[in-house]
Amino acid sequence: MSVSPTAELTLGLARRASTPGELPDDIRERARQSLLDWFAATLGGSSEEGPVALLGALPHREADDPEAVTVVGHRARLGALDAALVNGTASHVLDFDDVNLAFLGHASVAVLAAVLALAEQRDLAVGESVGAYVAGYETACRLAVALGPEPYQRGFHA
Questions:
Q1: Is residue 115 within 8 Å of 87, Cβ to Cβ?
Q2: Which residues fall within 8 angstroms of residue 114, CB to CB, at 6 or more apart?
Q3: Spatial distance between the Cα atoms of 82 and 91, rounded to a whole number of angstroms
Q4: How far apart, in Å, are the Cα atoms of 36 and each of 33, 53, 64, 133?
Q5: Among residues 114, 100, 109, which one has the least CA distance to residue 144?
Q6: Tag placement on the chain: N or C end, fewer CB within 10 Å?
Q7: Radius of gyration (Cα) for the chain, nearest Å?
Q8: Are 143 and 109 in contact (CB under 8 A)?
Q9: Checking DSSP bridges between strand 69-70 and strand 77-78, what pairing results, if any?
């Protein structure tokens, strides 16, 4: 049975992203700065109309629910997927989030929102979380380079 080129690419990216390795000090420092930047942008955007509307529309969890995770800037707790959605929206709503020219977009919005929600839900160690963020960010950039600027030029904002 043959594998489609799309499935082959997806599998290759997944294998590369999931290969553990020691991060160099400069990459760890860049990840730390990105995390601080993301939290500042997310906290600033957390009280804006979009994230607040999402928060109001999603089912809340009890504080002692092991599946519940933090929504930045709010006491409410949500499931990981919903918290990632609200936090990702909050981190982008003011448009102060990171930009990567290879990506032509804001990779940390989606990657950090997802990584932090899963890290909290699964009680991951900081090193694992940072490694997941770096892998996700690098994968997003590799995909963007492979696609080129055409999607962005046609109006798809990453």
A1: no
A2: 84, 88, 136
A3: 14
A4: 5, 25, 27, 13
A5: 100
A6: N
A7: 16
A8: no
A9: antiparallel
pLDDT of residue 79: 97
What the block records as the tokens of 106 is 């804001």
Which strand (E) or helix (H) includes residue 95? Answer: none
- For 45-104, the pLDDT digits (tens) are 999 999 999 999 999 999 889 899 999 999 999 999 999 999 999 999 998 877 777 777
pLDDT (0 to 100) of residue 20: 65
For 78, the enclosing helix (H) or strand (E) is strand 77-78
Residue appearing with tokens 């499935």: 7
> What would the two tokens of residue 147 be?
């696609």
Task: Give the model confidence (pLDDT) of 123-146 as tens digits.
Answer: 999 989 999 999 999 888 888 888
Write down the pTM of the prediction. Answer: 0.87
CA pair distance 55, 125, nearest whole angstrom: 27
d(CA 152, CA 119): 30
Cα–Cα distance for residue pair 103/120, rounded to 1 Å: 27
Q: In the beta sheet, which residues pair with residue 105?
A: 100
- Can you tell me the mean pLDDT for 109-135? 94
Q: Are 127 and 136 in contact (CB under 8 A)?
A: no
